[in-house]
Amino acid sequence: xxxxxxxxxxxxxxxxxxxxxxxxxxxxxxxxxxxxxxxxxxxxxxxxxxxxxxxxxxxxxxxxxxxxxxxxxxxxxxxxxxxxxxxxxx
Length: 90
Hints:
Elements lengths: L2 H7 L6 H10 L2 E3 L2 E2 L11 E5 L3 E7 L4 H5 L5 E8 L8
Antiparallel strand pairs: 1-2, 1-3, 3-4, 4-5
Helix pairs in contact: 1-2
């Protein structure tokens, strides 16, 4: 599944266009590598998302679109780190 679609369906980002913009500026990584919006997300991947005030690291449990729409657990929270508002991560 595409990264931007996964972020939207898993509710890590509210809109797919926002997910695309975040990927474009380098705020999203898959397995430690900066990812594009069209990058493929599979189960067991580690996705890091840099929000303005926190860094979120999750492990993908389900990358199946149908399962995500049925409200299965999309990810497991690995780490959540708060950052200073002045220090932008991307």
